[in-house]
Each structure stands twice: as C-alpha cells, then as structure tokens.
Amino acid sequence: MRRVLVPHGYPAFREVARRLLAADVPPSEVALTASARPQVVLTDDDDGLPPPCEGVGPITVPLSFVRRSARVLCHRAPEVVDLTYRLLWRVTHGERRILADPAHPDVQAFLRMEEAVVRDVHAFVAAARFAPFPGPPRPGLIAFHAPAHRTARLAAARFASQLRGRPFVVATLDEVALFDGAELSFGPPPEVAPGPKELAPWWQGYYATQADALGALAEPGELFALREAAPWPGASAAPGPAVPTGAGLGPLKAGAAGCLACPRGRRGGFVFGDGPVGAALMLVAGRPEAEDVEAGRPLSGPGGEALERALHAAGVDRSRVYLTLALKHTGGHPARADLVACRAWLEAEIRAVAPRSLVLLGPEASWALLGPAAQNPSRYGQVMGWRDGRMVVVSHGVEELVRRGKPTGLFDRVVQHLRAAGAAAQLRS
C-alpha cells in the first residue's frame, strides 16, 4: 500500500489527489496523512506515487465540494487528507452529491471537521488583538494568535475585508499572513519577531495581559522560536462554549443561560428544553420567540399549538416527549457561527436526555445538528442512523405549519414524519 505524507492545505492535496485519480488508485490502496512538512513524503515507496499529471485533462468535481474541501483541509487532524480523498473518489465515481447524505459515516466526519474549522475562524477573528505596527513597508497593524486549526488564511481574508485596505500582519504558529493594502501573501513563521525593536514593549505588554508565564520567556523575539511547542502561553484559540462534561440537565441549563460564545447570549432572552429525562423521542425546533421566554419553555405560542395537533394526529403522547431548541437565546435570523456555537449545548442536552430518536423541525434545527447536507428536501421524513445508535428524522419547521393555517398536505407530511420517529423510538400512545 502506498503511504504518503501530504503537506497541510488544499494545494498539496489537489496535486496528490490528481495524480492518484489519474492513475486510478482507489482509497483502499493508499494511506494519506496530513503533515507539517513542506514537501510530499513517501513513507512506504514500494509502489511509489504516480508521476505528475502532464497531459491529463481536468478532473471535474462540483465547485461546492472544492470550496468545502479547502475549508476542511485546514483541520489539524492527520486523517483529514485520507477522509477527503475517500469522498473525492466517490464524487468522481458517480456520487457527486455524496455530501448530501448526512447518514454516511465519512460525511458525518467531514461535516464535524468543517464545523470545527468554521468555529475556529470565528474564534480567531474574535480573539485576535491588533496593535500599531510602524512598518516597513507601511504603517499598519500586527496581531499574533495560535488557532486550534490551520485557519490563518481564512481569518486573514476576513481581516482584509474588515480592515478596509489597512495593511496588517497576522502571525500564527504555522504561517504569517501579510496584507499590503491590496493583496494577501503568506509565508512561514520567522525565527524572530517581525518588525523593528520598537515592537518589543508591545510584545511584553500583550503577553503580560495574556499569561502569567511570560516571565519564563526570554526576549520577545524568541516567542516565534516556540512554534514547535504549541501553543504560545495564553494565546490558545477562542472563547467557545464551556459545556460541563457529563452534566445533567440542571447544570447544562445554568451553563447555557450564561453562555457568551455568540452575540445572542449577550442580548437575547434564554429558553432551555422541556420534558422528561430518558424520553425516547426528542423534538428539536429552531430558535425561541418572545412568548417562549415569557413562559420559560420552548414553542409556547402558535407553533407549539400546531405541533401539539400534529403529535396527537401521529398518536404520540406529548408528555413522553422532550422538546428543545437548536438556539437557546432569542434574536433574529441566526448566523452560521451562532448555530455552530450552540451545537455544543444541543449535543450535551441530547446526551443528558438519551433519546432513541430525534426529529429536527426546520432548517435551523437540521443545520445545527447535521450541517448543510440536511437541507435536501428529498431526505425529509427518512429515518436515518446517527451517533450512538440513535435515529434522526428531518421534517418541516413549526412556523410552516402556522403559516399554512388549517391542516394541509404539509401537515399530513409532518404527522407522517412524527409517526415514523415515534415508531423508531418505540413510542406510541
């Protein structure tokens, strides 16, 4: 079997994958591992890596797969390259919509890595602190950060947009992003801190506020020399939700109420789930409304009434169902980062309740738990396998039932979905 160490990032993966695909090498005959080395390395070269693809036509894959793979390949897990090649093989062999199958184990792993990278970029942008940088070549800003994944390029693109043409340097343990006011460029981290001696006081002040261990460091310029022993003191990534490990619903509710991992927690009203621990069926809706905050439980308004009618028609006893929300705080239409941040609380809630099956009501709930692959309407109503042997069914949101008014074909479909989930949970009244 070929065993190949592939440098992190999409460009190196693309070159190796093109050579393997051109030679018709299936995933079962090659083991790819992400590596911090700058060059492709064969650790077992009995078969060798196929030669460069000179004269080989382009390999056509959906643009969405290319963009999402480029994002996922920022993940630090060594297996990310092998996983992406397995999915790419399927895409190029007749399964072009493989990412639309949230029940496939490789797709689930891919989506988890994608969400981890999205969360890390959000954390990078939130946590990085810029200081004035005298140049050369032009005065600008400088920041230092140690992200959980290799997200310097993704975060730098965000900074270039937000800083509106102002030059900056963003340094990480992996590489340095340089923006001259017009174009981004990237390079390896230098052995010493960039810039003139005037930066030294700022380095001292920055790290004095970040870590008590600063006294153990020598001159500020030596910080970059620590890049093999990640992360820098106090510079680890991001404020994410501090979810208590193995907690019951009481501690989870208290923790989620004070969560500040997204802007909704700073200004929105809070609503947690409602129902018995050990309920065989869990229903997950989208975000809370004002009436839910006032009542202290989810779906207390017209949406809840429509759901009650659907449960009754499906023969499912509401008192034996746990109902919760993907987002725990009120607010407008959620950003993707809000759903990613709140997913940790939802997953902990699922572990605490331990249902046998779940129904995801609407796009916010389905995206929060399964990612964008769940948005395919053709999968609505299908009973799909999920983690820990649980079943999951994607259905329409309760707001659609409210908009439609009296029972319609959509109402009947929701009833069928609830009935299928109740059967999977062995729960019928």
Describe it.
With 429 residues, this protein is α/β, with parallel strands linked by helices. The chain has three domains: 2-100, no CATH class; 126-228, no CATH class; 249-424, Uracil-DNA glycosylase-like domain (Uracil-DNA Glycosylase, subunit E, 3-Layer(aba) Sandwich), CATH 3.40.470. The protein is 38% helix and 14% strand. The protein has 14 helices and 13 strands. The chain has helices at residues 10-22, 63-72, 80-91, 105-127, 152-162, 199-210, 249-257, 264-267, 290-295, 302-314, 336-353, 363-370, 398-404, 409-424; strands at 2-7, 30-35, 41-44, 131-133, 140-144, 168-171, 176-179, 184-187, 281-285, 321-325, 357-361, 384-385, 391-395. The strands form three sheets. Strands 4-5-6-7-8 form a five-stranded mixed beta sheet, covered by helices on one side. A five-stranded mixed beta sheet has the order 10-9-11-13-12, with helices on both faces. Strand 6 and strand 7 form a beta hairpin. The longest helix is centred in the N-terminal third of the chain and has 23 residues, at 105-127. The termini are far apart.
